[in-house]
Amino acid sequence: MTQKAVVAEKKVGKTKKSGADFLIDGLKKQKVEVIFGYPGGAVLPIYDALYESGVFHVLARHEQGSIHAAEGYARITGKPGVVIATSGPGATNIVTGLADAMIDSLPLVVFTGQVATSVIGSDAFQEADILGITTPITKHNYQVRKPEDLPRIIKEAFYIASSGRPGPVLIDIPKDVAVLEGEAEADPEMDLPGYQPTLQPNYLQIRKLVEAVSGAKRPVILAGAGVLHAKASAELKQYAEQQGIPVVHTLLGLGGFPADHPLFVGMGGMHGIYAANMALSKCDLLINIGARFDDRLTGNLASFAPEAEVAHIDIDPAEIGKNVPTKIPVVGDAREALVQLIAQNGKNPDASEWIQQIKDWKEEFPYWYEENGNELKPQKLMEMLHEKTNGDAIVVTDVGQHQMWAAQYYTFNKPNAWVTSGGLGTMGFCVPAAIGAQLAQPDATVAAVVGDAGFQMTSQELGVIAEMNLPIKIIIVNNHSLGMVRQWQEIFYKGRYSHSLLPHQPSFVKLAEAYGIKAYKVTTIDEAEEKMAEAFKTDGPILLDMNVTPDENVYPMVAPGKGINEMVGVKK
Amino acid sequence: MKGILSLLVNNRPGVLNRITNLFSKRNYNIESITVGHSEQEGISRITVVVQVDDENVIEQMTKQLNKQIDVLKVTDITSQSIVARELALLKVVATSQTRSEIYALIEPFRGSVIDVSKESLTIQITGETDKIEAFIELLKPYGIKELARTGTTAFPRGTQRSTNNKSLSIV
């Protein structure tokens, strides 16, 4: 065979296409079910390629809506949410969502348009250095220089976003690269020599943990969202039962372990339950599985788990020892680690006294609120939501008081039914994230629980809900204020309510109706019972403007700077 | 304490930005950073000197750097036996009276004069940071008009000694 023939044969696997067509191919190859996007000048060639591609695209009403929807989708499915935004303002509008996904470890693949390579750096129309802007808030980002690089870059991006510790990956595509043609293999090799996430934990570290458990008197598991990312709920339950170890959840971990299980202590942290924070404070062995010891969980680090030997299972080695000194580091996938721990079947700890102690704490200091006749207390609302949905809904929240009440009162018994913005605390997250969650599971009951302030940040996405007739039940927990800000001002700023009260509101009912969405205003428990029952029997979307007690506070609480053993408001 | 990290990274656009960004994002202070080609094509070596409170911070830095997709290898060479060098260019005031004195200082430091004018000398000196600093101190009284330092570049010695006594070399 001559050399020419060899070259010719090599080329057989290659096809010639435009950058935009390579992109569509890549999405199809990754079996992308839905894209959330918003077109604009720099992505016109990409949108033209989308036009008859058969790829399902949801047009958000603002780019921020598209990326939060992708986050909601990613949280429920575990698969990367896909976003397309144009250059400049389109790209900068997704920055909050990227930061949110980065800190909460959600897999996203985000495509942004860019001005043509010939004018990059000239402050061209709708030019923004999105690579520079997003570097600290992406797991990785790319700017595509040649159309033929796209198949490889897309393959790498999906792999990076969804493997190891998940996170957002951004691909910036200059307009000319989308138009120009290149020759590339359909399924190129990835080129990632610097990226090898550790999945299998070290056997010796597992043995150390088994030894530590067998000798412990007061062990506790702290289970974070890593359990959910690793799809390790069944294994967590099996391990906790096998060893008889109580389980505390982080905010983001809720649902990883069934809340009605006798070994479940509750949520820990700033607004966690007393028993959980005491369990963390008094334990002699703390087994962290897939949580990152966030400051809202640990409180003052100096008084966090002072008597505990700390073991930490995490797929991201940088999380181990970052905030809390760790004696037994276990780098690996939470499920793999739990499978190994279960297989070891080590000697159970002698923890009967400890379990009794936790039970006593739970009984003595449950979550509490004061009822007042027919007044609609937000806590009551969450209990009602659980009841009306049989605890079976996907609950999506925004950020603030209602988020904490939902976490406290909607006992989560199954995984992947809780979508909330934890690390970044992004107001405006709820409504678009609910869209993503509903599209991820079209048959699921989705309850979008949102404050009146956060709702107004992204209410334009009602347009998408109405257009697609998504059966989302929007529950506005309306206290006519930025509730959590108001609470802090009441407690720490002598009741000086600086810009936290919202007496002037639109009629949320009329707003929903303007979009063609059925809506009710609710002011009492009786009305709430009735309308919520109706809502969950309704096929399409519905909005309930629930006017709750305006000055209700979230308790119990750990004041900032205090240890989690110093909770206030633990009892009536 | 001072820490030295040696990195091998893909020589791709944006990589240096990602690395320096990581330091500012995590509130770490870079004392110096040098970047250049390594022995392998397409791969650069970065030497970062950092000022930190304790070793835990260096460990955390190492882990965070390792997470970067384009970072192929991070080695904390702080407590290793290493060869570390920095280059400095100094333009120093030199009159006919002081010129020979300055020459006498250059010689034991094995610096070299690379430019001469009526009023000044430009001197090139290489060595470990301590040596460079000592030399700068000696020349200060004469009047340093301009100073440019490259920052430290380093890697581990061919043979690692078991003890950690870091000998200062003047060479």
* Number of strand elements of chain A: 20
Q: Report the radius of gyration of chain B as a whole number of Å.
A: 18 Å
Poorly predicted segments of chain A: none
Instruction: Give the uncertain stretches of chain B in residue-range form.
Output: 164-171
Which chain pair has the greatest contact?
A: A-B, 18 and 22 residues
The percentage of residues in β strands of chain B lies in 35-45%
- Give the topology string of chain B: H per helix, E per strand: EHEEHEEHEEHEE
Radius of gyration of chain A: 25 Å
Number of helices of chain A: 24
In total, the number of domains of chain A comes to 3
Q: On the 0-100 scale, what is the average pLDDT of chain A?
A: 96
The oligomeric state of the chains shown is heterodimer
What is the topological layout?
The complex is a heterodimer of chains A (572) and B (171).
Chain A: H1 3-11, E1 14-18, H2 19-29, E2 35-37, H3 44-51, E3 57-59, H4 63-77, E4 81-85, H5 89-92, H6 95-103, E5 108-114, H7 130-134, E6 140-143, H8 150-162, E7 168-174, H9 175-179, E8 181-185, H10 203-215, E9 219-223, H11 225-229, H12 233-243, E10 247-249, E11 264-267, H13 274-282, E12 285-289, H14 295-298, E13 309-314, E14 328-331, H15 334-344, H16 352-364, H17 378-388, E15 394-397, H18 401-409, E16 418-419, H19 430-440, E17 446-451, H20 452-458, H21 462-468, E18 473-478, H22 483-492, H23 508-514, E19 518-522, H24 525-535, E20 542-547
Helix pairs in contact in A: 2-3, 2-8, 4-6, 4-19, 10-15, 12-15, 13-16, 17-18, 17-24
Chain B: E1 2-10, H1 15-25, E2 29-37, E3 43-51, H2 55-67, E4 71-76, E5 82-93, H3 99-106, E6 112-116, E7 120-127, H4 129-139, E8 144-149, E9 153-156
Antiparallel strand pairs in B: 1-3, 1-4, 2-3, 5-7, 5-8, 5-9, 6-7
Characterize the structure shown.
- The complex is a heterodimer of chains A (about 575) and B (about 170).
- By secondary structure, chain A is of the alpha/beta class.
- Chain A contains 24 helices and 20 strands.
- Chain A has a six-stranded parallel sheet.
- With about 170 residues, chain B is α+β, with helices and mostly antiparallel strands.
- Chain B folds into two domains: about 1-75, ACT domain (Alpha-Beta Plaits, 2-Layer Sandwich); about 85-155, 2-Layer Sandwich (Alpha-Beta Plaits), CATH 3.30.70.
- Chain B is elongated and about 55 Å long.
- The two termini of chain B are about 25 Å apart.
- The interface of A and B includes residues 135, 141 and 192 of A.
- Chain A: One of its GO terms (biological process) is isoleucine biosynthetic process.
- Chain A: It catalyses: 2 pyruvate + H(+) = (2S)-2-acetolactate + CO2.
- Chain A: This is Acetolactate synthase.
- Chain A: Pfam families: TPP_enzyme_C (PF02775), TPP_enzyme_M (PF00205), TPP_enzyme_N (PF02776).
